[in-house]
Amino acid sequence: MTKKRTFLLAVAIPLLILLSMTIKPQATVLFGQEIVLETKAYDPTDLFRGDFVAINFVISDVPKSKVDLPIDKINNKKLFVSLKQEGKYYVVDQVSETKPKQGVYLKGQFQETYNGLNGAGDFRVDYSLDKYFVEQGSGKDLEQQSFKGALVGTVKVLGGYGVLTGVAPR
Amino acid sequence: MKRQISKDKFSLISTELEHYESNGLITGEQKNSILEIYEIKGGLNFIRVVVTIGALLVGLGILSFIASNWNGISNLVKLLIIFGVFGGVNFAGYMLSEDNPKTGRSFIYLGSLVYGAGVFLIGQMYNFGGEFPTAFLLWSLGVLPMAFQLKDKYLMLFANILFAVYLNGSYDLGFPYAGWVGVPIVYLAFNYFDKSRLLLFFANLTALSFIFQITLRYEVKGLYVASIFFLIGLLMYGVKHTLEPDIFRVQGNILLGVTGVILTIPNLWDIVVGAQSTRLVSILFALVFVALLFVLIRKGSLISLIFVCVTIFRYYTDTFAFLPKSLFFIVGGLLLLGFGFYFERMMKSSKGGTLA
Fold this sequence. Notes:
A: 2 domains; B: flat; disordered C terminus
């Protein structure tokens, strides 16, 4: 290969990496099912991605009664959380190890949390949907609204993968 | 070809040779012919520094622009701008490489920062959650092809540092499997980039962080983690080889010093001995450790001297039981003073040998 060719390749590879990063989320935004979730929020900053609203979805706390698996198959494992619509919002229906055949579901990493009183506790689930990036300085409004009442988040879901597309007051 | 050495070393050699000449050990001609075989290695080039810092500033400006998430233009347009600027600066870098190689190279550097901004822009566009250490892996991956294409060790160093950031930041993210591929790559790079000492130094740091991540992931107990790294430090310091031994010695010495001080913490030891004897075991370790450091100091290791001081200070702040502490320090100090005195006398009588 000539020097020019390899140089072009060295320029093209980073561009391809950038493009490939967008495939899964863009497909989800285009073809995914839209669901609305209840949430709370506050407003920190990331050095490289700027201001964001930290989102805490209600579905991120899964009660132990919803999970019918031995504990070593839950902690730090990625499981599928099936969601069902109750009124306007989607809530946790059940948790499974394998991909559900139908319905809306999200993949998330489970972590046991402890409740000081009876040790029962819940599971905390990380869906990687905990950040909503906003223009610098505009996160405070959402944070204020969050204190008054819960915010709602809109998520597009495709095959267990979710993209957070919007956060707005109830 | 002349032997390339740094400016400092050259001036040391020339002053020493002048000293030999004035003592009549060598002639002026001999001195000059010795100096002839050396050449001062090109140090920092001013133009290169200026254009590189210029590229760095523009790149940071672009990163900051993306982070501001300004709503004035849509995400898609921002992404197109990133693609355009990335292509543009690389094209400019290529065109300039013939006539203005330094400016050209700085455009390439700028390109690697613009690419990073693109990674974070996409993370922002789709609201990727979590800590996003994958961004640094992708950034590193995107810098690598250009580093190898231009055989530019500074780009390689940048890729290596980004990779280390990924390794150390990925704790929530599951096992950093990329380490199995990345660590060999940074060593291959050292070999490919004319055995640059700088790259070896950082390759070692990356390998050590990967080993540390492995121990974290497999929930290895603190005592074993510290012991493993203490051992690695000893090996790096002690094993004789020809591959830049001084880099391995310095890194090994620091590593064994830091982990040695950590191993003097009594609580670590409660997994091998009963809770009541952890203190005794840790103090026994500390004594062996300090003895080892003295052996190393005798071999000329100044770094070990620092760790002796750290260990002493660590015990001085350890407890408020002042009377036992006072006794321990006075006895310990007197012992050392006595040894020193004995050695000094011994050496005087035998009229030879130095401590260094």
